[in-house]
Write a structure and sequence with these properties.
Layout (H helix, E strand, L loop, with lengths): L2 E5 L4 H12 L3 E6 L7 H10 L4 E4 L5 H10 L4 E4 L6 H6 L1 H21 L4 E7 L23 H19 L4 E7 L1 E3 L18 H9 L6 E4 L11 E2 L1 E3 H15 L4 E7 L5 E2 H12 L5 E4 L14 H7 L7 H14 L7
Parallel strand pairs: 1-2, 1-4, 2-3, 4-5, 5-6, 6-11, 7-10, 8-13
Antiparallel strand pairs: 9-12
The protein binds nicotinamide-adenine-dinucleotide and uridine-5'-diphosphate.
Pfam families: Epimerase
GO cellular component, one term: cytosol
InterPro entries: Epimerase_deHydtase, NAD(P)-bd_dom_sf, UDP_G4E
Length: about 350
């Protein structure tokens, strides 16, 4: 059993990871500034698991928030989710993204050094493979330049962490490269609750299904894919959360910096998502084809063999589970965590 500091733990992936950490017997301290989440998610995590966690409302860019967190708790490892993640917004306000994600990560790593904590799991993204690598993506491919500022922050942080671990062998760092997280906890008590108009496919689709938005725009149907719409590797958020538990446990007994792809390895098209969602949930989703969205790649998916072999991780949820669980959360919480 270890004590884990979870930055950004009140958010979508963070809250699901807190559930899995608590259920695996670990102690959890969450540090989150609630800029894109609400404390309600953490109340529900505790109600669901019957276990308590510590919450600190703080910012990773504030040295004293971090130092205080490490001084008040005997932390063994950090899982670092905190950051901004909206691709479009990152093109409009790049400096805000560089400050939150890159400068925030530097502050965190420095605070860890001061506190003698050297085990870290970082939320990276498949975007670090850039635009030219063919799928399935493999961890040892040469990384490419992401085509947006959000993705650029992930690449910079990965490289910064790798160089830090090369310079000082006390570090043990996991870079988890997520593909497309969807779904929610089976209970429907926690899930994805984006502020404003969702950018991502799944929350947009469920908001159409629940009657909050008029129709789904499917961005492009002339891509060189099986049905003309983009293909992605959708991964159930609970499988993703389990990968964090395995990665943090792995880091407690290893050193160096290691990247793992966390995806199912199956390319699924946007149209397939919409059609399967309708079938699984017995509901019609109004949709129309519209222009391509700038910057979208036609298709990408993971080779997940390294995570399977080295972490002992396997995704347990299929596409139907992902779509049923996303809908269950949205149906039970039509306005998310807001009353
Ligand atoms: P989220 O926005 O739900 O969670 C991020 C959390 O970090 C929020 O609770 C937010 O309040 C907090 N936060 C932001 N800036 C902070 C700061 N400066 N100090 C303290 N807390 C701060 O997002 P998510 O979908 O759960 O994503 C978690 C991580 O995974 C992010 O780093 C994201 O970039 C990465 N990621 C997400 C996806 C995805 O599709 N959801 C894909 C790949 C990578
Ligand atoms: N997409 C869509 N309509 C939407 C949102 C997304 O057709 O309202 C498509 C998008 O073009 C991409 C896929 O769904 O092909 C996944 O997009 P998302 O933003 O969820 O994740 P990304 O893969 O871009 O990180």
């Amino acid at each position: 059993m270890a004590k884990i500091l979870v930055t950004g733990g009140a958010g979508y992936i963070g809250s699901h990871t807190c559930v899995e950490l608590l259920e695996a017997g670990h102690d959890v301290v969450v540090l989150d500034n609630l800029s894109n989440s609400s404390e309600e998610s953490l109340k529900r995590v505790q109600a669901l698991t019957g276990k308590s966690l510590k919450f600190i409302q703080g910012d990773i860019r504030q040295q004293q928030d971090l130092d205080q967190a490490f001084a008040s708790h005997q932390i063994d490892a950090v899982i670092h989710f905190a950051g901004l993640k909206a691709v479009g917004e990152s093109q409009q306000i790049p400096l805000t993204y560089f400050d939150n994600n890159i400068a925030g990560s530097i502050q965190l790593v420095q605070a860890m050094e001061r506190a003698n904590v050297f085990n870290l799991v970082f939320s990276s993204s498949a975007t670090v493979y850039g635009e030219k690598n063919p799928s399935p993506y493999q961890e040892d491919m040469t990384l490419g330049m992401p085509n947006n500022n959000y993705g650029y922050t992930k690449l910079v942080i990965e490289q910064m962490l790798e160089k830090t671990s090369i310079a000082d062998d006390r570090w043990s760092i996991a870079l988890l490269r997520y593909f497309n997280p969807v779904g929610a906890h089976k209970s429907g008590c926690i899930g994805e609750d984006p502020l404003g108009i969702p950018n991502n496919l799944m929350p947009y689709l469920t908001q159409v299904a629940v009657g909050q938005r008029e129709k789904l725009s499917i961005f492009g149907n002339d891509y060189p894919t099986q049905d003309g719409t983009c293909e992605r590797d959708f991964i159930h958020v609970v499988d993703l959360a389990e990968a964090h538990v395995l990665a943090v446990e792995n880091r407690l007994t290893n050193t160096g910096c290691r990247a793992w792809n966390i995806g199912t390895g199956q390319p699924i098209s946007v149209l397939q998502i919409k059609n399967t969602f309708e079938k699984v949930n017995d509901i019609v989703v109004r949709a129309e084809f519209s222009d391509r969205r700038a910057g979208d790649l036609p298709s990408f998916y993971a080779n997940n063999a390294r995570a399977v072999a080295e972490l002992g991780w396997t995704p347990k949820h299929n596409l139907e589970d992902m779509l049923a669980d996303s809908w269950n959360w949205q149906k039970q919480n039509p306005t998310g965590y807001k009353a």
